[in-house]
Amino acid sequence: MTATQGISSETAGSEQIAQAKENPCHSTNGREEIKSAPFLLPKTVRPRPVPEDASLKDPTLYFNKELSWIDFNWRVLHLAMDDRLPLLERVKFVAITASNLDEFTQKRIGGLKRQEAAGVRELSVDGRTPGEQLALLREATLLMHRTMTATWEKVLRPALHHEAGIDVCDYDQLDQGQQAFLHEHFQKEIYPILTPLTVDPGHPFPFISNLSLSLAVILEHPRQGTTHFVRLKIPTKRWLRVPGRNGNLTLLPVEQVITHHAGELFPGMKVISVHPFRITRNADVSRDEEVADDLLAMISEELRERRFAPVVRLEVAAGMPDYDRSVLLRELNLAGLDVYEVDGLLDLTGCFQIAGFDMPVFHYEPFEPAVPYELQHEGETKDTMNIFSIMRQGDLMVHHPYDSFGMSVQRLLEEAASDERVLAIKQTLYRTSDESPIMKALMRAGESGKQVAVLVEVKARFDEANNIEWGRMLENSGVHVAYGLVGLKTHAKTTLIVRQDQDGIRTYCHIGTGNYNSQTARLYTDLGLMTADTIIGRDVVNLFHSLTGFAPDQAFEKVLVAPLHMRGPFYRLIEQEIANQELYGNGRITAKFNALDDRGIISRLYEASQAGVQIDLILRGHTMLRPQLPGFSDNIRIISILGRFLEHDRIYCFHNNGDPQVFIGSADWRTRNLRTRVELITPIENPAYKKQLIQILEDAVADNYSAWDLDAEGQYRLRYPQDDEPVREFQTQQMRRAHKRAKKSRK
Known about the structure:
The chain is α/β, with parallel strands linked by helices. 35% of the residues lie in helices and 21% in strands. It has 4 domains: 46-160, Methane Monooxygenase Hydroxylase, Chain G, domain 1, CATH 1.20.58.310; 165-360, Polyphosphate kinase middle domain (polyphosphate kinase like); 373-555, Endonuclease Chain A (Endonuclease, Chain A, 2-Layer Sandwich); 562-741, Endonuclease Chain A (Endonuclease, Chain A, 2-Layer Sandwich), CATH 3.30.870.10. The strands form 4 sheets. Strands 1, 15, 19, 20, 21, 22, 24, 25, 26, 27 and 28 form an 11-stranded mixed sheet that branches. Strands 11, 12, 13, 14, 16, 17, 18 and 23 form an 8-stranded mixed sheet that branches. A 6-stranded mixed sheet has the order 3-5-4-8-9-10, with helices on both faces. It is globular and about 90 Å long. 44% of the residues are buried.
């Protein structure tokens, strides 16, 4: 494996990106030994030594949350470096890395800057001030930015030429014929839509939108000798196709065409310099919901303010002169530390367009989701042809994208919308797709006279405007829409259907780990339980009563609901494993979720480890828990899996002395999920589905291809197969298992 071909430690800008001299073994405590690959990622979190008298509250026992997120994005960037992956998939991952870094800068760095400006002195859990965290993040994000750009410029861009026949050129590399073609294109297609905005006493510095790409143009009046600054916004169409050579597809960034013809925009002026730049604004804008008269109006005002929020990052071309840079710093109210020099293409999110080219040989092999066995056979009578009769026969559990979303969850909503016996449909909406078949089904149900209620979360970050629009469309269709709860985000993923069956009114529920989004259901791994269980149905009815009405003391019998009815049950489940370890020596916890930063949960996991409980955590994102820390977390192992699909499902499994208790749902073990969000976790009681979930966890723990092991010092090491050992790649296994399950009944 040469996962970093073309990327050296020097190129990356750090000695940490290098080949390790040893292959340290993963500590398995009796499990099969899995070796880690020699490739090491930068160790961003830099934990401090633990004092001998440390308590479970000591800051040194915790990784910094923000720096741990940077480590996560390094693992994403590694996928762009990994030459085991198809080429255009690697191009996609460098674009994802850039997009992730944009969002992190807007939300997290922007938030820390607000804290620092406000004089916040409260320390993070690992004992750092906002200013200290910003200094560490500046260093970490600069290194990532440089490595990301080098990966594109020195690895992927040449590979596109040599392997795929895609030439991503600079203007000076084109021949005269190609340049003549571009000049004509500039005159006809680009020149008319450009809007030069000059800065002088009569023209204030223009507003620059968030994440937009611009050109800074410096002009000189040849007779008066005056210097002028002009901003040119780059059109959204990033890549121009140029007549190629030798049958290759030739692409040019549009900003280079504008740069080389900028003089035509300013007759009578001398162009001194033209350089690209890009700004990032703070997205951490929030208001006090308790004093808001109208939640929708408040969110709309937040969106407006975010548009004009302070700039927190300025990306500039490495060759931009000091004068041009000083103008931008002054007008944008920035300091030198806010500048990121880019030695290559600015805004690598533009690579999404290249990654989307229809060239199958350079993409993953197509995967068609399986249709669960029970949903393939509709029966012979009219009654057994609908999905409700299938659910009455027993629970259904689906694992997306391996199991078809369209033939399961989407089918459930579409059948409910047209079924005359369905009386009511209720659903939580956090994020959904633009052309959502789920939303269309709900609107159809509302128009037909069914009682339809949707809890639309208008505080879902970066989806506020989209969700407000969906809410208005739903209301116009006769749907009852509630817009979240004051002080909480509704993150639960659930649907309730009330149906008049032949034997009375019955509830049918879907409880999932992911959003009702048919597009991401093919890209994200998520689980869903479809059940006609009467107790779970009553619990979900109570949940919706508390969401749309007012019932703060609502009770739940089976499901766990945050913020009031989830933390305590999880604490008790962990304590139960401590007791089982003391009595039987078999305490064990295995869980798979997105991120871990809740101090209360972490403290109890430390206590469980100290008691001897064996703990395996599969985390896609960040963690504040330090695994394998002597005396505290010797029995805790953390791995991270990234791959073709985004790992998004949440599974919690407690051994329970041989009678496992297994749960799925919307919540991670993060403080925001347990304290400030409405979340829903459901037990899985069907023995076959329990077994399936445990198998998923075992497959993840045994992965020797895409799993990263984390140690106590914050170092991630990529696993690799030992000599003559078969490759066990987690997501590939799940694809195979889904098609195998599709041939067998849940019975």
